[in-house]
Specification:
By secondary structure, the protein is mainly alpha-helical. The protein is 45% helix and 11% strand. About 15% of the residues have low confidence.
Length: 268
């Protein structure tokens, strides 16, 4: 007889409960909780109600030594957000940590291209600061605070080259394995919401285009302020979106999920 759906001992980890949907084990797991003194049944005759599922009073025998906790029966556990095929979605903080790791990696990868411009930028900043100090010592009025045009001459190449490195880095990893080094480090990956596996080129370009397009717009005076706000909202959006998608996820129809992506048949 097919075992009815419900929460049972996880066959892979006895310290957790895993949900059986009546056909297969799902990816939904939750830790066990020891019963309180009032809930304890030690020394009492056990009733065959352990497999109660809450779907019409089915009281089949529970296939394990621990009954479903009362707190689980009362529905205090919020179901974990998943893709349509049941893969758990990544938490927001893991996405942030992965993005920070990738930022450091792409910075060092791009140094051979951006190093000279970064050096000249800081040299121009130091020269500008020295001139202001000399004006103050001579008793002259300090010039109104405004960054010299020369600084933008060095900043713009740094920004453009950094974006170029980030685009190539993201595209190669997302289309090959679905995860950059930063995402692999925290155990998450990117896939189409409806289909597992590394991203197709079209989805990868849409995702990358939204992220880096906002970064480029943020360099434009006045318009850059609005672009910076939009960029912040983009990264915060998964916090309240029911599918945990940022704007770039919605544009590419992707989700960031827990675990790696299966390889394509041609990659095996």
């Amino acid at each position: 007889m097919t075992q009815p759906s419900g929460w049972y001992d996880d066959p892979q980890d006895p310290s957790k409960l895993r949900y059986w949907d009546g056909v297969i084990w799902t990816d939904h797991v939750t830790p066990k909780q020891a019963p309180s003194l009032e809930q304890s049944t030690i020394g009492m005759a056990q009733q065959p109600t352990w497999g109660e599922t809450g779907t019409g009073g089915d009281r089949s025998a529970y296939p394990g030594p621990a009954p479903m906790p009362t707190w689980q029966q009362q529905g205090y556990v919020t179901p974990q957000a998943t893709t349509p095929d049941g893969v758990p979605l990544s938490g927001w903080w893991k996405r942030v940590l992965a993005r920070l790791i990738d930022g450091f990696i792409t910075f060092f990868i791009g140094l051979p291209l951006t190093g000279y411009f970064i050096y000249r930028y800081f040299q121009a900043v130091i020269d500008y600061a020295d001139k202001q100090v000399q004006r103050a010592r001579s008793g002259a009025q300090p010039s109104p605070f405004a960054l010299p045009t020369e600084l933008y001459v060095w900043v713009i190449p740094v920004a453009l080259l950094s974006v170029l490195v980030a685009v190539v880095y993201e595209y190669l990893f997302l289309t090959h394995s679905g995860a950059t080094w930063g995402k692999k480090a925290v155990g998450i990956s990117v896939r189409l919401r409806e289909t597992p596996g590394p991203l197709p080129s079209s989805a990868a370009w849409r995702r990358i285009g939204v992220i880096n397009g906002l970064q480029l717009f943020s360099l434009i005076p006045i318009l850059g302020n609005l672009a910076s706000i939009a960029e912040l909202l983009n990264y915060l959006w998964p916090l309240w979106d029911p599918n945990k998608q940022a704007w770039h996820d919605k544009a590419a129809k992707t989700n960031v999920v827990v675990g790696p992506q299966p390889k394509r048949p041609t990659d095996r």
